[in-house]
Records
---
Amino acid sequence: MNTNTHESINPGTLYGVGVGPGDPELLTLKALHTMNVCPYIAIPATSKEGCVAYQIAKGAYPGIDDKAFLYISMPMTKDAALLKESHEAGAAAVEKILRTGSSVAFLTLGDPTVYSTYLYVHRLVTNHGFKTAIISGIPSFCAASAALNTGLVEQSEPLHIYPGSYPIQESLSLSGTTVYMKSGRNLAEVRNALSVESANVSMVENCGMAQEQIYRSLSEIPEHAGYYSIMIAKRG
């Protein structure tokens, strides 16, 4: 890959690299460049096979397997103590590499700034005095709207983003468009809450992946779906 037209990578820097929602063709040129020139790739998993972000990146950058890998365990839990421990361990592993002068590209789904577990490691590493940077990726809710072949908001309509794995009651009175991200775990609860109002609801499951499913109305949405399910509710 030709990198001559890109800005140089700073040595000893942690880069949070958004790989987009699922389709490898949605990776940005800057994400590809960063992975190409960083000696180390960090992934939020204990193996390549168990990491969706790695699988997406490999689809666009086959040379990724020539890199050295850091495996950062990110448990799917709401236990604050366990999360703190994993974030600190992840930051320590990254910082060990940064001290040698090598840069690290930390892969994360979608965009690193939106409900990303990477941000916790990013904040710790930044606070410890290391250089850090964020490489934006296409957010899953934008890709989901594109998969539905429609827009998210128009004119003065507001856009609200909610984590679907948490209580959503306060969102039901909002106008405009509300996106419920990663709704799979609480899909039945979210679906039932939305069924009592007049919103137009659609959902994309596994957006951009081989298992992508599109549901264009609330009645089509099943009781259960995968973790990577994006629900979009449009209200007048």
Note: The longest helix spans residues 80-98.
---
Amino acid sequence: MERQLEYSTLLERAYKMIPSRSLVRERFEVEEPEVMVTGKRTFILNFKKVCDDMNREPEVLLRYLLKELGASGNREEDVAVIYGVFSPKMIKELINLFLKNYVYCPVCGSPDTILRREERKLMQLRCMACGALTPVKPF
């Protein structure tokens, strides 16, 4: 009986020595898009920063957004201008969809990828972590 008591005391002491879980932040974080609608135009104010976070050229992400929204637009400095009224929620969902399909590796889930266009418009996602080469739907 004494041995059982000693074990539980030691176990309690060991649990107390374990540090409490701290907030674990992911290494890869993309900044929330700052969307502003003025008149009949939608602005993504931190567009360049969002693109830099995902390691993609701004033209690539803008082309994807414009195709998915069925709108026209352009880029002025660090801001994306989309002609039409679109909700911030819709823009955020499209950026998350872009991340899922064109940034994260489908094999290992790593965000360390390169999006490249091969001849004849074939787009491939090359993972720098596991080396996988995955064809992706062109846009």
Note: The radius of gyration is 23 Å.
---
Amino acid sequence: MEMIIDFPGGARVDAHFGPYTVMTDQPPMGGGAASAPTPFALFLASLGTCAGIYVLGFCNQRGLPTEGIRIIQRVQTDRSTGKTENIELEIQVPPTFPDKYYSALIRSAEQCKVKQLIENPPTFNVFTNVVA
């Protein structure tokens, strides 16, 4: 997949791929207008929503209702370094959800490709190229 990243003004940085545009911005204290999530917030949202796709698929395959299910994502950051130290995904289910599926629901969320990428990071190659 190829994405085109451009700079439409201010502190905005947008990604274009297929028919989609994903916009990002910075908060005012970072020189932006807070018109869109920051790239890091978008990255974190991709983790929670990716886990959600797997939870949704698990439930759909078994004919389990998804009403009342939600994922609460908590990010703990070291205040002195700003480094993300822990990411917690809490899958909340309604009282009627069969408890025999709890561990399988966790296993399905753990199949998230974003999570797997973080756990086994790819090699990055960053370079410049002059275009006419």
Note: Residues 39-119 form a domain with the GMP Synthetase; Chain A, domain 3 fold (CATH 3.30.300.20).
